[in-house]
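Query structure, 287 tokens:
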């Protein structure tokens, strides 16, 4: 899979043209133009047309552009998918995925629309059944690219509160990270309702990174800076990665199977992770 940053993934209501234009100037890695939760029923069709036109018009630079459709089972879902496919975003985000069969249904609908293979599927995991079937969903189809946590809906179904330690979500979050890593996908953490982007939000981001997430879904521009900082490689991390690679390359030149850097063993797995850090850093600069 192509390495690209997904530190900050901002949801924007598809019915808000001003917000769509604003997203083209924000320091985000990806934007999800939402046709589902953020759009009232009587605005679904106008929002669909607005989003499709915005994606076709372009101007998002290196930001990854994703359209979240309504579920195919709804009255809007299939028309959403057809309009999205014609606009050719980077990906289609599908809510409340619960099975491999649903992934195949979305993929088949994309094929029926003659959607290019470059349009990926992002699956939202936001129900207990979806969490339990995360591995099946992650491995269901070559278009699968990213898992997206939907912790707001999940909280309701699990009957757990939103607490600073997110104790009630830990099992679900861990299972989904395992599924993503097992099948080579990225995974982004769920939204946080504190819009300030302050210390509480930063702590939640730090926990998400510690759990293995690649980034955070956001609902306000105030949250962008903290997400980018926490999920992005720091200057120290980049420099350390360069030193790891240099030490490993020197060990290879000398015929050694391992290297030592600052008194710590360096093996090929450390060199591979260092290369990924540098690749992410380079991709961030390119946005």
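Result returned for the query:
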């Amino acid at each position: 899979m192509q390495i690209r940053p997904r530190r900050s993934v901002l949801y924007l209501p598809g019915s808000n043209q001003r917000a769509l234009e604003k997203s083209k100037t924000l320091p985000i890695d990806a934007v999800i133009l939402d046709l589902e939760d953020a759009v009232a029923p009587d605005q679904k069709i106008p929002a669909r047309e607005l989003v499709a036109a915005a994606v076709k018009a372009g101007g998002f630079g290196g930001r990854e552009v994703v359209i979240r459709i309504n579920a195919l089972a709804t009255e809007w879902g299939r028309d959403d998918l057809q309009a999205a496919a014609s606009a050719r975003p980077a990906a289609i985000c599908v809510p409340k995925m619960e099975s491999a069969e649903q992934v195949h249904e979305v993929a088949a609908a994309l094929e029926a629309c003659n959607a290019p293979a470059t349009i990926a599927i992002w699956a939202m995991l936001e129900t207990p059944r979806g969490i339990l079937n995360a591995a099946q969903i992650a491995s269901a189809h070559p278009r699968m690219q990213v898992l997206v946590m939907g912790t707001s809906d999940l909280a309701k179904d699990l009957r757990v509160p939103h607490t600073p330690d997110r104790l009630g979500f830990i099992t679900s979050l861990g299972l989904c990270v395992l599924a993503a890593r097992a099948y080579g996908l990225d995974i982004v953490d769920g939204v946080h309702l504190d819009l300030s982007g302050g210390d509480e939000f930063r702590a939640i981001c730090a926990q998400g990174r510690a759990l293995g997430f690649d980034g955070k879904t956001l609902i306000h521009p105030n949250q962008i800076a903290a997400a980018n900082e926490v999920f992005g490689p720091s200057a120290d991390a980049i420099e350390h990665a360069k030193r790891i690679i240099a030490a490993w390359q020197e060990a290879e030149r000398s015929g050694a199977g391992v290297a030592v850097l600052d008194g710590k063993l360096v093996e090929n797995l450390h060199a591979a992770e260092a290369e990924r850090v540098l690749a992410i850093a380079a991709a961030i600069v390119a946005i």
